[in-house]
Each structure stands twice: as C-alpha cells, then as structure tokens.
Amino acid sequence: MIPGFVQLGILVIFFQVLGIAGFYAYLRWQRPAAGAGSVTRAEWILASGVGLLTLGQLAGLGAIGSLRTAPLLSLRQAMVVQNVSLLAALAGYGIVVVGFVLYSRDSV
C-alpha cells in the first residue's frame, strides 16, 4: 500500500502537469505558431522539461515513500535520491520556462 503523502504528491504532480498543459493550450490558442502543422523546437523543449520535472518529483516521492513500505534504501540513500530528484525537478521547471519563452518568441 502506498503511503498517503505519496498519493497526495502524485495528485499534486498531476495537477502541476495539467496546469502547464492548460497554460500551453492557452498560449497556443492566443498565439498560434508560424508552422502550425509541425512540432517546433520549443514544443520539444517544453515536453522534455515537463518529463524531467515529473520524473524528478516521482523519484523523490518514491525514495521517501519506499522507507514506509518496503525499505529498499537506507535513510541516507533515500535522502540523496530525494536531493538529486529535487535538482532534476528544478531543472525541469527551468526548461519549461525556457520552452514557454521560446514558444512565445517563435509565435510572434
């Protein structure tokens, strides 16, 4: 059984990704890209940023959540995994911001 804080964390991650997708849909509706038929470089960057932040957050939740169910990692190892996951999630957010900036620059 997954601990409650991990379930709540997964729900929060889902709504974060949903918010990013909603903001992207709004931008695409307001400012369509010049090459509307093709996937642009900004869209690839945006998708990779969302993937990185999602994987980073899920890995951090899984490392700490596994201590409560079946401890595969020691506490020190779980904290290291959580810290690296935090850095990956922050890098993912940075990449998402860069993707939004590139998309708004390309759609002018």
UniProtKB/TrEMBL annotation:
**Keyword annotations from UniProtKB, A to Z:** Membrane, Transmembrane, Transmembrane helix
**Natural source organism:** Halosimplex aquaticum
Q: Where are the transmembrane segments?
A: 6-24, 44-64, 84-103
Keyword Transmembrane recorded: yes
Q: What is this protein called?
A: Uncharacterized protein
